[in-house]
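pipeline: protein-struct stage 2 | run 1193 | Potassium channel subfamily K member
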Amino acid sequence: MSSWYKSWILLTGFILFYVAYLLFGAFVFSTIERPVEDKLKRDIQVLKEEFLNQSCVNATSLENFLERVLQANKYGISILPNSSASSNWDLASSLFFANTLVTTVGYGHTTPLSDTGKAFSIFYALLGVPFTMLVLTACVQRLMHLVTYGPISMCRQKIGLEPLAATAVHFAILLLVVVLGFFVVPAVVFSYIEDTWSFLDAIYFCFITLCTIGLGDYVPGEKPGQNFRSLYKISVMVYLFVGLMMMYLVLRAFHRMADLHGLTSFFQLPHCDEDIEEDKEPIIEAGHEDQHEAEDSAKPLDPASQTSYNTINR
């Protein structure tokens, strides 16, 4: 088995381990926080009944009632009867929270209620954030050959474009595909599912999410009586991960193009030449026989025939 297949198999296992890490976090968060949430809901319901049973409402009792309600609402718990059925800490919602935590999006709509949950969030994010960045980097490293190097080579061979023009055309097409596939089309879907969202609100949500800003003023799946809420939350989680991967891919492609066009030299920024050699290295070490075969196949017949980013005139 070649090192190329071994690296893809290892990457697949890497992604599966990442999914298992998210599921582990979701299970722990749900186990810790759901009993606390249920208790807070009962306390708010008792407070509501006591307030309604008062014969005469004074300013002090009203302020106390509003303060408790606003405090509960900060943790995603509403006093409205049609919103009490859904939980913020079921398995799907906990999985969504764990994903937003390790991707640094952090909408802030749902936050840990207990001290144990807050402490676990620190340790979970301490490992999960760099782990997420590592998984995204590994995925983009593999996709660069498929989405960037291959199409640029095709533009040069099939269409006959110059290297600089080929990179510019490729980046424009890639940017258009990402804007349509991860901003416009999802915005149409979100504006259809979320009744209170306009198309501009949905575009705004997609941009805030994929830029990992996560203001939290728009959070999907929080509408009372949301159909297929668990499936919807998981779908948004997948969109978030794939969207972040594509945003990182666009940034890497732009860095490549800027390097070829001399922008990195003009602004005295580091070049990507050293990353190109790293992208060519397999994720795992090949065996001795595979290594000798790779070395033999890598020997150039003619040094002048080997093209690289360094040989292109900027």
